[in-house]
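Sequence in, structure out. Go.
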Amino acid sequence: MPVNRMESCKWNRVYSSIRELLMGHVEISGVLSRKFVKDLTDYFITSESTKRRLQELIRSRDVFRREVVERKLTIVRFFKEFDLSKNDYTSIPLSFILETFGHIKPRYYSITSSECVEKDRVGVMIKLVKDKPNNFVGQCSQTIMLAKSDTALGVFIRRSKFKLPYDLSRPLIFVGAGTGVAPFRGFLMEIVSAKYKLDQITRVVMYLGAVGRPA
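Output:
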């Protein structure tokens, strides 16, 4: 996805509402931890029947993993799935939410373009995280997918030491095990750019690892 303008993320700002704070600053869409549910049960749940249900949930790690983690339950879906209402808990302070979920974490994507070819544009490759059985979508990938052409997104570039060797007269072997094919697309763009002569490249071989069942 080409990005026309790169801007540093601005964390220090004034939010106009609690909704804007939670949606744009806090990792509110993350899967709940067992500790969060335990603290919620111990300090805020007032309904005895609800408290007993949640205590059963957190008593076993296997049960919690099956019912919450594997189903990727966020705080909103957790309240709906377990039918928690305002009568089940006392007022949860905003400080508890902020301390529990913390600052929203940046998502890092490999750059797929080359500065030698496109000096004022950056390309990235993004996989849309979508788990239909669990009704779960990736927060960042979904936001980018729904963004319009005039939508402003906070992005930044990290310097990397992952670069092509200076001597390109020797054969190159690309191994895409964890990063995938994304950064090597930029390498190939750089190789065929005017910066290098194609007759200097002897051979380029790429091994790409993919998740799948063994044969």
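Check: Helices lie at 18-25, 34-43, 48-59, 61-69, 75-81, 94-101, 139-146, 182-191. The beta strands are 2-3, 122-123, 130-131, 136-137, 172-176, 204-208.
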